[in-house]
Structure to design on (538 residues):
C-alpha cells in the first residue's frame, strides 16, 4: 500500500516482502503475484494488481 | 634552513642501529659491572683472610711464648725461639723481650727483614702496633703482652709475603678484568646483532614490498616461537589478507567490467534507436527493455559486492543461533507455489533441534539460491529434497534434486563468478548464484560441494561448523 501507484520490481518485492536479496532464477515472484491476484482481483472490478511487462507490478485502481 | 621534501623522507638503518647500540651498551655495562664486583669481592675476601691468618699466627705464638717465659724464663724462651726458627717449620717471626722503656733483653729478627727500625717500636705494651719499613713498602705487625715480671714480650710478622701474594693476585685480576670488559663489549655486540637480525630482515622485507609494490613477497619466518617470529608470522598473515583483498577487488572489477559492458551496450543501442523513432509504442517498449536491463545490472552489482565481501572476509555476519527447522520451512514455503506450478514435489527432512551459529539472512539467501536452482533445473514430475542433520561436530544441509544434473566439463567451473554452462544459458539468471552460495558458506567457516549425475540429478551439500542441542535452542 505504501508504494501505491508506483511500479515495484520483482527483486524489490522479493527483498521487501520476504527479505531475500538475490535475483531468482525461477519465476517465484510471478507465481506468488498470480496467486495474490486470484485472491484480490478475481471476483472484483476494477482490477488492482497490474503487470508492467518486463519490470514488475503496480497496485492501482483503474 | 632546510626544507623537508614532500613525500616519504629517506630512511636509513638509524632506528635499529640506535636500538642495537643501546642494547649492546646495556648488556656490556651489566656484564662488566657484575663481573668486576665479583672480582673486587674476591680480592677483598682474600686480603682479609690473609690478614686474619697472619694475626692468628702472631697471637698464638705470643700466647705460647708467654707460657714458655712464665715457666722457664728468658733462657727457655730463647731456646724455644732458636729451635723453632732453625727448624724452619714455623713461620719466621720477629720476637723481642723488653724491660722498662728500652732495654732489649732478647731479639730475634729474621735476616731478610733487616730494614725495620725496631727501636721505633713503642714499649707501652699495646696489643697491636704497626711499624713501617725504612723503604715504606712493607709493615711489621707486632702484638705485645706484658709478662708477670713486668717485661714486655713482642711477637711480629712482616706483611711482605702477604703483599707479594696480593700483588700477584692484583695482576691476575687486572688481566681478567680486561678480558671481561672485552668479552662484555664483544658479547653485547654479537648478541644484539643476532637478536636484531630478524627485525632487520623484517624491515628489509617491508621496505622491499613498499618500494616494489609486490605484495607476494613474504618475510622469512624461523621455526622458533618468540615474539619476533610471531611478529613475522603476523606480518605475513597481514600481507596474505591484503593480497586477498586486492585479488578479490581485482576479480570483482574484472567481472564487472566484462559482464556489464554487454548489457550497457545493448541498453545504449536500444535507447538510441528509440530516440530516433517516432513511434510511441516502440519508445515505450524501449523504456521497458532499458528498465529490465538496468534492473538486471543492479542485481548483478549487488550480488558481486556480496560475493566480494564474503570472499575477502569483510562481510559483516550477524551470527546467532539459527534453528534450521524454521529456516528450511521458511525457504521452502516461499517456493511452494513455484514447485506446485511446475509439478515438482518438495520434501524436507530436518532433524529436530539442529541449529547453527550463523547470519540468518545470509544463510537463508544461500539456501534459497540452492532451492531456486534445484527447481529451475528439475523437470515436471521431479522431486527436490531438503534435509538437515547433525554429522559429528558439523551440521549438514543437503539440497537434492532429480533434475538435469551438471555436465562433467562444467562441474569444475560452476562456482566461478559469472560462469554459465551451456544448459544454464537457456535459463534466467546471472551466473552468480552458486558463487554467492559458496562465498557465504566459506565466510561462515563451512564448505559446500556437489555430487551430480547428468540426467539424474544433483545434490548440493553445505557443511557448517557446530550443531547445538535442543537445550541450547530452548534457552534462547
Amino acid at each position: 500500500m505504501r508504494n501505491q501507484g508506483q511500479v515495484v520490481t520483482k527483486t524489490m518485492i522479493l527483498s521487501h516482502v520476504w527479505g531475500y536479496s538475490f535475483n531468482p532464477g525461477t519465476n517465484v515472484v510471478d507465481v506468488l503475484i498470480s496467486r495474490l491476484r486470484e485472491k484480490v482481483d478475481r471476483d472484483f472490478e476494477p482490477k488492482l494488481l497490474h503487470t508492467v511487462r518486463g519490470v514488475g507490478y503496480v497496485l492501482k485502481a483503474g | 634552513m632546510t626544507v623537508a621534501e614532500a613525500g616519504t623522507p629517506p630512511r636509513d638503518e638509524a632506528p635499529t642501529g640506535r636500538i642495537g647500540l643501546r642494547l649492546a651498551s646495556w648488556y656490556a655495562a651489566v656484564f662488566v659491572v657484575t663481573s668486576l664486583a665479583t672480582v673486587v669481592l674476591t680480592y677483598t675476601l682474600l686480603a682479609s683472610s690473609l690478614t686474619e691468618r697472619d694475626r692468628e699466627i702472631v697471637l698464638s705464638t705470643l700466647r705460647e711464648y708467654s707460657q714458655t717465659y712464665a715457666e722457664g724464663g728468658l733462657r727457655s724462651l730463647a731456646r724455644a725461639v732458636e729451635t723453632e726458627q732453625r727448624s724452619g717449620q714455623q713461620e719466621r717471626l720477629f720476637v723481642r723481650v723488653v724491660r722498662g722503656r728500652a732495654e732489649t733483653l732478647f731479639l730475634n729478627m729474621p735476616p731478610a727483614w733487616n730494614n725495620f727500625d725496631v727501636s721505633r717500636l713503642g714499649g707501652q705494651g699495646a696489643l697491636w702496633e704497626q711499624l713501617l719499613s725504612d723503604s715504606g713498602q712493607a709493615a711489621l705487625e707486632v702484638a705485645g703482652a706484658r709478662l708477670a715480671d713486668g717485661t714486655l714480650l713482642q711477637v711480629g710478622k712482616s706483611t711482605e709475603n702477604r703483599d707479594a701474594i696480593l700483588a700477584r693476585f692484583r695482576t691476575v685480576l687486572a688481566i681478567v678484568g680486561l678480558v671481561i670488559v672485552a668479552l662484555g663489549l664483544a658479547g653485547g655486540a654479537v648478541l644484539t646483532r643476532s637478536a636484531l637480525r630478524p627485525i632487520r630482515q623484517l624491515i628489509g622485507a617491508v621496505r622491499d614490498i613498499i618500494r616494489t609494490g609486490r605484495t607476494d613477497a613474504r618475510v622469512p619466518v624461523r621455526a622458533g616461537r618468540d615474539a619476533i617470529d610471531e611478529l613475522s608470522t603476523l606480518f605475513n598473515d597481514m600481507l596474505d589478507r591484503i593480497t586477498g583483498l586486492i585479488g578479490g577487488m581485482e576479480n570483482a572489477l574484472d567481472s564487472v567490467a566484462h559482464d556489464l559492458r554487454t548489457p550497457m551496450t545493448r541498453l545504449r543501442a536500444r535507447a538510441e534507436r528509440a530516440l530516433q523513432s517516432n513511434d510511441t509504442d516502440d519508445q515505450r517498449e524501449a523504456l521497458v527493455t532499458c528498465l529490465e536491463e538496468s534492473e538486471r545490472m543492479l542485481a548483478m552489482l549487488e550480488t558481486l559486492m556480496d560475493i566480494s565481501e564474503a570472499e575477502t572476509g569483510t562481510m559483516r555476519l550477524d551470527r546467532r543461533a539459527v534453528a534450521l527447522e524454521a529456516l528450511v520451512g521458511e525457504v521452502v514455503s516461499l517456493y511452494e507455489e513455484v514447485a506446485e506450478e511446475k509439478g515438482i514435489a518438495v520434501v524436507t527432512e530436518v532433524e529436530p533441534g539442529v541449529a547453527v551459529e550463523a547470519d540468518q539472512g545470509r544463510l537463508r539467501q544461500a539456501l534459497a539460491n540452492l532451492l531456486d536452482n534445484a527447481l529451475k533445473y528439475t523437470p515436471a514430475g521431479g522431486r527436490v529434497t531438503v534435509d538437515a542433520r547433525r554429522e559429528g561436530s558439523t551440521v549438514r544441509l543437503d539440497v537434492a534434486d532429480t533434475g538435469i544434473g551438471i555436465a562433467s566439463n562444467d562441474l569444475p567451473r560452476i562456482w566461478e563468478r559469472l560462469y554459465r554452462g551451456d544448459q544454464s544459458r537457456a535459463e534466467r539468471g546471472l551466473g552468480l548464484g552458486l558463487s554467492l552460495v559458496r562465498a557465504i558458506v566459506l565466510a561462515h567457516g563451512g564448505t559446500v560441494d556437489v555430487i551430480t549425475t547428468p540426467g539424474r540429478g544433483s545434490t548440493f551439500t553445505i557443511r557448517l561448523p557446530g550443531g547445538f542441542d535442543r537445550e541450547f535452542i530452548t534457552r534462547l
Remarks:
- The radius of gyration of chain B is 50 Å.
- The longest strand of chain B covers residues 383-391.
- Chain B has three domains: 16-113+120-165, 227-312, 319-475.
